[in-house]
């Protein structure tokens, strides 16, 4: 039915009323609020009372599907498996560089790449926004904005 002012009239007798409820588990809600932090670390934080008055992580250790995407790392090369030749002259090794000598390059002593603790921390910090981006299907260019909004 169309009205003269280009408005549509509602027939209240034919309408169906529905109500939708969005319920989320408290554990999962806090897990997402804290940026997909490791469940084991959240358990330790709660046991040592580092965080107070938070009703989260009652022994939850399940890895979420999003975290499997966001926190995965490349697997190392298989140990003990080498490619080998099965026939003569199948693998030919040549000296590509000839007389060029090996030059030793030294890195800075206290660089983050040399420090396992800082590398682990940087990896944890980068895992959190990556998981959030995967969860909401956002572009990678929003990673810096998410890093600024992470809980400190």
Automatic annotation (TrEMBL):
GO MF: nucleic acid binding
Domain of life, source organism: Eukaryota
Matches recorded under InterPro entries: Retrotran_Ty1/copia-like, RNaseH-like_sf, RNaseH_sf
Name of the protein this chain belongs to: Uncharacterized protein
Species this protein is from: Sesamum angustifolium
Higher taxonomy: Eukaryota, Viridiplantae, Streptophyta, Embryophyta, Tracheophyta
């Amino acid at each position: 039915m169309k009205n003269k002012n280009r408005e549509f009239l509602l027939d209240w007798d034919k309408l169906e009323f529905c109500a939708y409820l969005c319920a989320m588990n408290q554990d999962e809600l806090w897990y997402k609020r804290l940026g997909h932090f490791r469940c084991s670390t959240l358990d330790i934080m709660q046991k040592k009372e580092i965080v107070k008055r938070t009703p989260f992580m009652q022994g939850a250790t399940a890895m979420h599907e999003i975290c499997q995407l966001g926190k995965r790392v490349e697997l190392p090369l298989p140990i003990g498996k080498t490619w080998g030749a099965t026939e003569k002259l199948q693998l030919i090794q040549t000296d590509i560089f000839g007389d060029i000598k090996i030059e030793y390059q030294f890195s800075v002593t206290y660089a983050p790449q040399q420090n396992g603790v800082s590398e682990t921390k940087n990896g944890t910090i980068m895992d959190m926004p990556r998981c959030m981006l995967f969860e909401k299907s956002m572009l990678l260019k929003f990673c810096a904005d998410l890093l600024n909004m992470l809980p400190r």
